Amino acid sequence: MEMTHRPRRLRRSPVLRKMVRETRMDKSSLIYPMFVTEGTNIKQEIPTMPGQYRYSVDRLPEALEEVADAGVPSVMLFGIPDHKDACGSGAWAEDGIVQKAFRKAKETVPELYMIGDVCMCEYTSHGHCGILDGDYVDNDKTLDYLAKIALSQVQAGADMVAPSDMMDGRVAAIRRKLDENGYCTVPIMSYAAKYASAFYGPFRDAADSAPAFGDRKTYQMDYHNRKEAMKEVFSDLDEGADIIMIKPALSYLDIIRETADAVDVPVAAYSVSGEYALIKAGAKLGYVEEEKLICETATSIYRAGCSILLTYFAKELAGYMDKGLIG
């Protein structure tokens, strides 16, 4: 049979398949999210996220060393305070949980690049991501608080800040606050298109951040919308965002692709807690092969256009890259 085009020619051997691979991944693109809590000698497994833990600050270095040893270069910290109030004052306190964690991280594992999640939901008594006016989150009042949180994290040692609140104008407020205080070189990775998603459930257990009433649909995006995501992306870029993030990842691969095609900055994606939990639960039941599914889903996110991946499987993915199973 005469055939000019035979795509299978380039699939004949593992070496050849890897040579012509379109999507390439590297450990340098991985960010590992971690949870820190008040107290001492705490390494507490998160029930809805098996294999993930809450660490007290004194136990954090051992966990960070594991991350560094795996070859994962970057960590994002989420704090779980003892005290919560209406304005989330623990989020910007000098002795706040995440501030203490950043200082400890820089003292003990300085080679890791540390990123601060800038939000209020873990710190407010009502569990919402901003300052309330009755039952409504007041966008403009919240901006000053977010800027204070970002500044406090950078002063404690954060190398980058990542606002996840979805308030309009928060990137500009944070950029202005950082610049005024001499931190003009600190980048902002904006959760630009963050959807109101059921995939966040395990995280809310992990961070004790579920809203006390209502939901977050007045500020997080409606998952029916595609064009609105691009409006959010370009708004954040205009305000000074250096990196754009899409969250969640797997159900929003179309948004990642469209964003990557439209912008000239790095595009990050957050493979969130629910995605992690589904794979873990399916593997435990014997329904799926965990290793293969981790590799396939991560590759799909990169293939969609992501160049930076936040994932609870960061350490595993780094190991799979070392083994040549992915990358």
Low-confidence stretches: none
* Beginning-to-end CA distance, first to last residue: 36 Å
Secondary-structure class: alpha/beta
Tell me about the biggest sheet?
10 strands, mixed
What proportion of the residues form beta strands (DSSP E)? 15-25%
Order of helices and strands: HEEEHEHEEEHEHEHHEHEHHEH
Q: Report the C-alpha radius of gyration, rounded.
A: 20 Å
What number is the mean pLDDT? 94
Number of strands: 12
Count of DSSP-assigned helices: 11
Q: Which descriptor suits the 3D outline?
A: globular
Oligomeric state of this protein: single chain
Helical proportion, percent range = 25-40%
Please explain how this structure is put together:
This protein is of the alpha/beta class. Helices cover 38% and strands 19% of the residues. Strands 1, 2, 3, 4, 5, 8, 9, 10, 11 and 12 form a ten-stranded mixed beta sheet that branches. The chain is globular, with a radius of gyration of 20 Å. The model has no long low-confidence stretch (mean pLDDT 94).
